[in-house]
Structure of Choline transporter-like protein:
Amino acid sequence: TFNTTNVTKLCPDAQCLFAFYGGETAYHKYIIALQFFNVFMFFWLANFVIALGQVTLAGAFASYYWAFKKPDDMPAFPLFSAFGRALRYHTGSLAFGSLILAIIQVIRVILEYLDHRLKAADNKLAKFFLSCLKCCFWCLEKFIKFLNRNAYIMIAVYGTNFCTSARNAFSLLMRNIIRVAVLDKVTDFLFFLGKLLIVGSVG
């Protein structure tokens, strides 16, 4: 009805432009929130799968390490039995640990989104605070990943819940902080050598 109205007489620069099909629905209003929800669920599920793998490996190693008579006291299939224990008894703990990590990762995504939106603005103070927040949440994510991995080991070995395992893992790490730092660097170097060996052999 644009051409039949007197809008062009009242406002000569007025134009009739195409916006989108279907009108302004609830989907169009909340599309950004839905996209953030999708990102959050992706992070949660990805972290849950990683946690399940870590608990499974820790359970398999523990069943070998604490077997008094090897291989008589070991299960026939250590990986499958550890995977079954993790799914049957520790699913809630894994989901809770993954949830904490997913929340931190979503906050980091929101900070990156805000940084992208504020690039046009020339506000030095806002950029400084945003950079500080990004750095703090990056450090927090690394710390939570490290703590979660050790908490999952405690879960696989002792069968306690996530909070108890995280507390025990943190106190154990604090009691042996120098040994943990040395072992962490040594294992990182060994992993690096293993990656080089695999890539070189495949090449």
